[in-house]
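Shape matters. As here.
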Amino acid sequence: MKVLDVTEFYSERGGGVRSHLSLKQHELCQRGHEHVVVAPGGIAREESALAHLVGHARVIRVAGPAMPYDPTYHFLVRVDKIHAIFKAERPDILEIHSPYVAALAALTAPKGSYRVRTFQWHSDFIDTYAGTLQARVSTVFAQSTWDGVWSDTLRGSAPLADYNDALYPIATSNAGAYPDRILVKFTSSTAFQVIGENLGLIAVGDVNQNCAPVNSLTGETYFTLDYRGWGAGWATGNCLRFNLIGAAFPVDLVRAIQPSTPSGESGARRGPSSGLLPVP
């Protein structure tokens, strides 16, 4: 059996994907199978990765420019070259290890160039690269008392205490953030309620532990308030205000199924709007 793996992250000096594929090479060769890795490199070449009494492993490099942050990694840019390798090798199993050009090459691979196609992700790419790019917290300020007005600027005076969001920023992510104005209202010198303008009461907490109310729709936290940011000097009635911004505004979807004309029913006729109208 021949197994061909395509990856865009195959450094010359190591790395998690390379370690995984090296172990896979060893195991497949011991069992008498052939293993081929297609990966980008500085020049196009073929390397004998591992020779075994009953199996063999190779690495086929596709020439590509070096990545700026680490020149031992290279970009995989030639889909046509990858397709040519598929045709020449005709693997029994084609496995893809990244969601970018490698996945594109596999999805557009010519028919008959492989028997089985699989995909394996080594990390949560969406969360890693876009998890918090949109969700964020803004307009953080403290207020002495709450007067019931959801304002994005201070109303009245500021309290003696303040939340240190410079050292302990309020954390959030796309998975749990919901766009709303948030009020943290102290009910004593240490305890508080967390209220959203639209969400209502979502949590109670105190300054001695992290506060991380959970979004019941996603199972993830709306945000996390680090207890170390509170400091001292808070009093009953003091408030902390901030705005929570999600990746996208929430949308409600409603599906409506129009009734069909009942078969065999008398006493009704179809009106000009294609609905059923009662017959007087």
Remarks:
- The first helix runs from residue 16 to 30.
- The chain has two domains: 2-122, 132-250.
